[in-house]
Each structure stands twice: as structure tokens, then as C-alpha cells.
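=== RUN LOG ===
request id: a7f3
mode: sequence -> structure
chains: 1
length: 231
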Amino acid sequence: MLEYFIKKSSRHRLLKPRVVIAVPGGITPVEKRAVFNSAERAGAGRVYLIDESKAAGIGAGLPISEPMASMVCDIGGGTTEIAILSLAEIVVSRSIRIGGDEMDEAIVEYMKQHFSLRIGTQAAEAIKIEAGSAFPLDEERTAEVRGVDTISGVPRKAVVTSEEIREALREPLEAILIAIRGVTEQCQAGTGRRHRRHRDGPDWRGFDPPRTRPTDERTTGRARSGWLRIP
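=== RESULT ===
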């Protein structure tokens, strides 16, 4: 997929494009290296990795460069990134391995237990999009779902409400809320420092610099205008 997009974006075959990739803050240096190498093999000229939280803040139009705090809660498929940003830096952040995939699985399990209906993750995702919510709505929504009866094995359909889906999503949402409270408490307690990373994830500064070339900016992992280049 990377190779396809890189080739499509390249106007000149001799010039390799610069590529910026947003990565979760909780990934290990080995995983960062794997992402970097994959982009290079796909045809990228220079590869830059940026924290997902910072990328989300920029994309949402938040004033992350101003001397004020902005919170980002980026719920992805496999992870959720929570960060407080100020002056274009991450003050304190946390990454938890809970995201949309866990929500889909929670809906699948809820339908099995309360409706005796077996559905797939794609159907669960459709229900989540159509009727999912984290708080009570002024007008509750409903969604129709088709699956297989767990007792008779016969295909059938059922109608679920947004209130029922909220109950199904309660555990993953509570885990995300706990993480948000933890990040907020860290910031309020004054324990946040530049590029401080929660113990669940590595320091954003990236790889340890090689001792053979300590003055080479490409290998020291130094941040530059909010971007981080990994050698």
C-alpha cells in the first residue's frame, strides 16, 4: 500500500518523495525502525515519523503552538492516544492498547449474550457507527443487525438501541476515561515535562543515538520543528 501511494504521488521517477508517517506513541523503537524501513523500501526518499497525537492536533486545527494546553484523544483501531500539547510540544501523554477493534469485539459479545445472535466484526462496526454513543442522546437511535441465531443456527435479524450499544461499550470507554483522567492528573500535579511518556510507552525521543556519530543530527533523534527523523 505504501509503495502504491508513493508511486502515485511521485511526478518524477528520479526524485523520491519525502514521507511523513504518524505512529502511535506507545510503539517500541524496534517497531519505529520497522515502519521507517518499510517506507524506505517502498520508495520514499526521506522518512519522518510524527507522534499521532501531535498529528491529530494539527489536523483538528487545535492551537498546539500557543502557550495554552490542548488535549487530544485519538481513538484508533488498536490503540488510543491521549496527550496534552502546548507550544508545539507534548507535555504529557499516554497510549493504551484499546481502540475501535475492542469496541467492535465488545458489541459482538454483547449481541451473543443478550440477543443470542452471532455477528461479525464488520456488522458490529456498522452498529457502532450507526447507533454508538458514549453518553445519552436527546433522541435515541436504533440499528438493525443481521446474524445467526446461536441456538437454532437460523439467520435472523434484531433491532438494537443506542442505549444498549452504550452498555456494550461501557468497559472500553471506561478504560479510555481512566487514561484521560490519569493524563489530566499528571498535568495538574505538575509532573509533566517535555516529551514525557507514560510508562506504558517509550520516550518519544526515539532511538538511542549511535556512539560512532554523536554529532550527526540524523542519528541523534533530535526533534526539528515538531518533526522527528529516524535514521
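=== NOTES ===
Residues 16-97+178-229 form one domain.
The chain has two domains: 16-97+178-229, 100-171.
=== END ===
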